[in-house]
Design brief:
- The complex is a heterodimer of chains A (250) and B (449).
- With 250 residues, chain A is of the alpha/beta class.
- Chain A has helices at 40-48, 72-78, 95-109, 117-130, 135-138, 148-162, 178-191, 205-210, 231-239, 242-247, and strands spanning 2-11, 14-24, 29-33, 54-62, 65-66, 80-83, 90-94, 141-142, 166-170, 197-201, 215-220, 223-228.
- In chain A, the strands form three sheets. In chain A, strands 6-9-10-3-11-12 form a six-stranded mixed sheet, with helices on both faces. A four-stranded antiparallel sheet of chain A has the order 2-1-4-5, covered by helices on one side. A two-stranded antiparallel ribbon of chain A has the order 7-8.
- In chain A, helix 2 (72-78) packs across helix 3 (95-109) and helix 6 packs parallel to helix 7 (178-191).
- Chain A is globular, with a radius of gyration of 18 Å.
- Chain B has 449 residues and is an alpha/beta fold.
- Chain B has eleven helices and 20 strands.
- Classes of the chains: A alpha/beta (250), B alpha/beta (449).
């Protein structure tokens, strides 16, 4: 599904990603862990085409298509979704209008007619239930005045609406209390199908108790330095990152 | 340029004074010579005047415009030929063609007893004592060249009178149309008087047909009696061939509630001055505006609110979106006099500059002489939030669509303050069309099609 080869990326001339190689197959859940500043969020930003970052080398293909040639909106319409670490507040744009525009853009891309108002509201209702998102929030401006937990729920709600093939969850667990964490994680699991894949970026094992990864990677100084099964996350939780640094000879 | 601008009008006045007066009414004529003398003394306002520093008024008057001093009527029935962009919103509809009030063939709307809605000239002839009491009392010619010029040359206008305790349910809609084969100047006057507990709404739509260059001056005087409620909306949809210079004066008695909302959707050069005096306790003014300007358009909103009595409230909100090489200016002064304790005043001006070539000048001013007040003011000039644009792109919206939604959201705060639901809905649509570039012409106007 996703193939990243020798990916280098920089921001303001400073190289952050220094040769990432990663392959994700349909149905797989990959966790990416690593100490602060290792490049995890940069990787997710580059995948969805954030213009702040410049790709200097390497390639990304998604279902056979060259991602680096696609606009951010086309990456979304192709099925790539990022749950933002810091969802943006958009005063004056209601969730309903925003989601209607988004869903219909996706449909247009697939040559489907736009949803009628009643079909759309039915879809909203259905998907809201996935993350127990309050109806009041759906009628408010996008993320405006939402609590940290509500913002993250809202990200997963949008994911449910757009039904992406690849979901990237960038520290979706940060700022969540235990109940919200469970709801958000259960939401992600409900949306999981054998055809869809997930990248979970996190610092903590906690989230991985709910969203079980197939493969765990450690990102360090812009490179993936270790890849193993789910047991790696437990080991990191217990021992921290120092032993990996030692393995690397630092 | 400095003297020439004035000279052609000074000569014209001296030649045509009798003609001007003959086609007007004695009450209107009575202020004319004094206004002319004031105009000769002070001339058009230059850019050195603080109040006019952002708009070169003098040069606006330099071209040779024709004036219809003979009051030759336009040979059209606007009720049949013209449809405004704000149709079917259940208003009592009236037209001003250039500066001539079009007298409808049949009575328009069912006005409650005692309400007068007619040409100012007619009103001045039928009810001279009423018009005389209010005409020219707020728009002083002493120290404002525009007021002086307008008062010297104006022949007619619109008069609305709502007596005490009368509620005018149906809004008045007044459509100004500039339409001539040659370059044309129009000098209009609006006089609104609301008695105690009276209520009314007025919507003025400004249009300019293609084909010639136009300049209009408009002086409006609005008296809101004790405990009255008045909404005054102005919607400009003209073009690059139009100059609009407009002074609006509002005087509010105790406990009156007035909303003034000026929307500049498309224009050429526009200068609006709004002056509000809160002249009684517990009066409330909401003074709002929107400007969406592009190409070489110029919009200058200059406002002044004076709190003279205690416990009055003023809320001011102006939002501009400037594209291409457009220039915007906002200067808002709020003066809280010594006796105006417990004043609540808020002034906000927010502006989006979409290009590096667009310019915005903003000047919020607060003068407080009382010591127990709650006042704030603020202004911002900036760009669309790039993070928000990207966030929306990540959900599948094109960059253009994301920007349109954000601009729409930006000005909606002002649209939502409108207290006429059908107009609000209509403006939501017009603003969206404007941002989508679909509003170069008015869509429903029979003439433009």
């Amino acid at each position: 599904m996703l193939e990243i080869k020798d990916l280098h990326a920089s921001i303001d001339g400073k190289e952050i990603l220094k040769g990432i190689n990663l392959t994700i197959n349909p149905g797989e859940v990959h966790a990416i862990m690593g100490p602060n500043g290792s490049g995890k969020s940069t990787l997710s930003s580059v995948l969805v085409g954030n213009p702040a970052f410049e790709v200097t080398k390497g390639s990304i293909t998604f279902n056979g298509k060259n991602v680096l040639e696609m606009s951010p909106e086309d990456r979304s319409r192709e099925g790539m979704f990022l749950s933002f670490q810091y969802p943006v507040e958009i005063p004056g744009v209601s969730m309903v209008n925003f989601m209607r525009a988004a869903v219909n853009e996706h449909r247009k891309y697939k040559n489907l007619p736009p949803l009628s108002a009643s079909e759309f509201l039915k879809l909203m209702r259905e998907k809201r239930a996935v993350v127990e998102l309050d109806n009041k929030l759906a009628n408010r401006s996008v993320n405006e005045g939402f609590s940290g937990g509500e913002k993250k729920k809202n990200e997963i709600f949008q994911m449910a609406m757009l039904e992406p093939k690849l979901s990237i969850l960038d520290e979706t667990d940060s700022g969540l209390d235990i109940d919200a964490l469970r709801i958000v994680a259960e939401g992600v699991n409900k949306l999981k199908t054998p055809e869809t894949s997930t990248i979970v970026i996190t610092h903590y094992q906690r989230l991985l108790d709910y969203i079980k990864p197939d493969i765990v990677h450690v990102l360090y100084k812009g490179r993936i330095v270790k890849t193993a099964g789910p047991e790696l996350a437990l080991e990191l939780e217990e021992k921290g990152y120092d032993w990996i640094k030692k393995e690397l000879g630092e | 340029m400095s003297l020439n601008s004035e000279k052609q009008y000074i000569d014209l006045y001296q030649e045509a004074r009798d003609l001007i007066c003959r086609h007007s009414a004695p009450v209107i004529n009575s202020l004319r010579d004094k206004a002319f003398a004031d105009f000769c003394r002070i001339g058009f306002p230059g850019k050195k005047l603080e109040k006019y520093k952002y708009t070169d008024i003098k040069s606006c008057f330099a071209p040779d415009y024709g004036l219809n001093l003979n009051r030759v009527p336009m040979q059209v029935d606007p009720y049949k030929t013209f449809k405004c962009d704000v149709p079917n919103i259940s208003t009592s509809l009236f037209f001003v063609l250039n500066d001539i009030f079009y007298v409808p063939e049949k009575k328009t709307g069912n006005m409650p007893d005692g309400v007068l809605m007619m040409s100012l000239k007619e009103a001045a002839e039928l009810h001279p004592e009423l018009v005389e009491k209010y005409y020219g009392k707020l728009a002083s010619t002493e120290n404002d060249g525009i007021n002086a010029f307008n008062t010297a040359f104006v022949q007619d206008g619109v008069f609305l009178y709502v007596p005490d305790n009368v509620v005018l349910e149906k809004p008045i809609q007044l459509i100004n149309i500039m339409n001539a084969k040659m370059d044309m100047m129009a000098n209009r006057r609006i006089l609104v008087v609301l008695g105690k507990n009276a209520q009314a709404k007025m919507l003025i739509c400004d249009h300019a047909e293609l084909g010639a260059k136009y300049l209009s001056t408009q002086v409006a005087e609005i008296y809101a009696g004790e405990n009255s409620v008045f909404d005054y909306y102005e919607l400009e949809e003209t073009g690059s061939n139009n100059v609009r210079i407009c002074n609006t004066y509002v005087e509010q008695s105790a406990s009156s509630n007035v909303l003034v909302n000026g929307v500049t959707l498309t224009n050429g050069l526009t200068r609006n001055h709004v002056n509000v005096v809160l002249n009684g306790e517990n009066a409330e003014i909401a003074l709002n505006g929107i400007a969406t300007v592009d190409k070489n358009q110029h919009i200058d909103n200059n406002t002044n609110i004076e709190h003279r009595y205690s416990r009055c409230t003023s809320n001011e909100l102006f939002k501009y979106v400037l594209d291409d090489e457009a220039v915007g200016a906002f200067a808002g002064r709020v003066k809280v006099c010594q006796d105006a304790q417990k004043t609540v005043s808020q002034q906000t001006n927010k502006n989006l500059c979409l290009t590096r070539e667009s310019h915005m000048y903003t000047q919020p001013q607060l003068e407080i002489y009382a010591d127990d007040v709650k006042c704030s003011h603020g202004a911002t000039v900036g760009q669309l939030d790039e993070n928000a644009v990207f966030y929306m792109q990540q959900r599948g919206l094109s960059k253009k669509e994301a920007m349109t939604l954000l601009m729409f959201a930006f000005v909606n705060e002002v649209v939502d303050s409108i207290r006429m639901e059908p107009l609000k809905d209509r403006l939501h649509m017009l603003v969206e069309k404007r941002f989508r570039g679909e509003l170069s012409k008015c869509s429903s106007c029979a003439k433009c099609k």
